[in-house]
Amino acid sequence: FAVGVASTTHQPHLKPRLASQARVVRHAGVAKVPGASYVPTPQALTTLPTSILPGAVAACIGLLSAAPAEAVDALPSAVVAYGHYAGVVGAGVCLGVQRALVRPSMSEKDTELLSLASSAYAVSLLVTLGSGYARVVEFGKGWEFYAHEPIFWLKITFTAVLLAASAFPALIISSGKPMSPKLTARMTSVINAELLAVVSIPLFATLMARGVLYADWFPWQAGLAPATLAWLGLTLRYAKEALTWSDEGETSGNDAQ
User: Fold this and answer.
1) Are 62 and 109 in contact (CB under 8 A)?
2) Angle at 81 between CA 215 and CA 78, to 5 degrees
3) CA gap 32, 206 in Å, rounded
4) What pLDDT score was predicted for residue 55?
5) From the centroid of its chain, how far is CA 163?
6) Is-contact 159 201, C-beta < 8 A?
7) What band does 31 get if pLDDT is binned at 50, 70 and 90?
8) 31: which strand partners?
9) Side-chain half-sphere of 245: how many Cα atoms within 13 Å?
10) 3-state secondary structure the chain
11) pTM for this one?
């Protein structure tokens, strides 16, 4: 500003404008310092903010109104994602408890704990499936992405196998069959398979989220068909095996599967 004032001796047409600016600065309480620099006086600290208050208030209101809107939109997505992860972890914990409890000649207390673990496992699966569906259609990347992602359908197929396999322990536990050595071995085998599926599914989810193998040309029907067939076929097989289980009549083929 000082340089500008000095240059008015050669530019007379700037004098009225600079004089007006000087009056504004003096009125605001800005003190001149040698060397054409200025520092605010105590008067400036109370006067200048008042002059810019409307704009500052408008800017703050804009920021405060935009941030909560984004937070509100993100909250349901975060809750659904948390529920999905919690469901998967809960299913794994319940399977681990079942695996530890299953043994020949179980005590009454262990039998009750096994029943509770089986019920909690069913709830965890329901939470995982419900939150997973919500993420596909509403809160995730959208159906158009998942429909053309082969790894997504591989994850769905493993989930179908997991659901089908869970029918055997659930029916055996609910029927109250005594845990013979042969039945214990079969239960252990099925629970181990379920644990393997639970551990594999997050790996598929990680690859899927990053678009690995994504292809626009991939038809969703090609992914849905094997998952549906696996679920229906294995569910019928495991349910029939559990309902007709007999230690005397079982063949060695069931032990190998």
Assistant:
1) no
2) 115
3) 63
4) 57
5) 21
6) yes
7) very low
8) 39
9) 24
10) CHHHHHHHHCCHHHHHHHHHHHHHHHHHCEEEECCCEEEECHHHHHHHHHHHHHHHHHHHHHHHHHHHHHHHHHHHHHHHHHHHHHHHHHHHHHHHHHHHHCCCCCCHHHHHHHHHHHHHHHHHHHHHHHHHHHHHHHHCCCHHHHCCCHHHHHHHHHHHHHHHHCHHHHHHHHHCCCCCHHHHHHHHHHHHHHHHHHHHHHHHHHHHHCCCCCCCCCCHHHHHHHHHHHHHHHHHHHHHHHHCCCCCCCCHHHHHC
11) 0.68
- Residues 255, 103: Cα–Cα separation, whole Å: 16
One-letter amino acid at 157 equals T
**Pairwise CA distance, residues 148 & 224, whole Å:** 11
The token pair that represents 23 in the structure block: 């009056």
Q: What pLDDT digit, counting tens, does each position of 111-149 carry?
A: 999 999 999 999 999 999 999 999 998 888 889 999 999
Q: Which two tokens stand for residue 106?
A: 């179980």
Residue 205 carries which side chain, given as an amino acid letter?
A
Contacts of 152 (CB under 8 A, 6+ apart): 146, 204, 208, 223
| Whole-number pLDDT of residue 141 | 86
Closest CA relative to residue 232, chosen from 169, 174, 163: 163
